[in-house]
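Narrative of activities, Objective 1.

The group set out to show that a structural description can be obtained from nothing but a protein's sequence at a throughput compatible with the screening campaign. Below is one input-output pair from the validation batch, recorded exactly as produced.
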Amino acid sequence: MVLHKSLRLTSFWQLQTLGWVCFYVWTLLGSLPDLLRRSGALRENTLVVGLLFLGSCILHPVCRWLLRRYPSWIAFELRAFGASVTIGAAAAFVFELTLTGIHNINAVDLAINSANFPFLLFSWSSLYFSIKQWHTSSQERERLLRAEAEVREARLQALRYQLNPHFLFNSLNAVSTLVLDGDASAATKMLSQIGDFLRTSLNGQAALEAPLSQEMAFTEQYIAIEKTRLGERLQVDLTISPDTLDAMVPGMLLQPLVENAVRHGVASLAEGGKIAIESGLYEGRLRIVVSNSGRQGPGNQGEGENGIGKRNISERLQTLYGNDHQFLLEWPESGGCMVVVELPVRRLGPQEVSPC
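Output recorded for this entry:
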């Protein structure tokens, strides 16, 4: 808080000094013929600007108090006008007194300056009000944007947390099946793989987006678990373009898609089947395809347990990218299901690389 006030004070005095220096230069340029003709013209102009600068410094705390007390434009301007007249008239009197002395004050010049000085100070107070209002509105917009971003992040995190118990339930159910089948070694191996998988999941929960290379490594851990359970019934084909590995994608994008492909396109068939994951750049956009072999027709492919898989991914993509994405499910004539995701290309920047 102290730092914020210090920065705000420094900013005001920088603008204050710069503004009056520019006004002084502008005044000298406008009075150039008079400066060349009269030797005292420079002193008079300097004194005018100096008194106005001093008057604005006196007016500053008054305006700051008025802005807190009377935030509406009309109420502020009426009271600022009164303060400007008082301070401006006093500055005009000091100006005449300095130039001519108490006994030689020119009433006409005093009257003219008593009108000019308050006008300039009132213009200064109006400018101060405008800048403060703009600054306040900017802060409010920033606060709203920050609040919206926090709500958006909380929603994305909640959607991601939704996947963890869903995955854990399915995985433990698979381990239970292996135990009931008497395959203790496979069950032990799978428990170890589940532990590694969950450790990776928990360590990476804070990231709303991750490079595709990280997502692939995470997904391959899941595939290893399913390979332990299904053995040769599960065939995997990976075609990942190297120029997509640093592209950012939503965290835990692939694993639910692969899980649905395995459950509905491979595990449900006695003969097993194949899943394929492809990535590439097409017309400047990232395209990811997850497909599986299987029977022809949609069936319940893509729905996941209680519809969590497809719905969760769809909501996260909409929250992250708005309408700038595609999420399609297709059922080729040859059978199986194909999920297509198209996203804008966002690269992993140097500032996003985690320190070693």
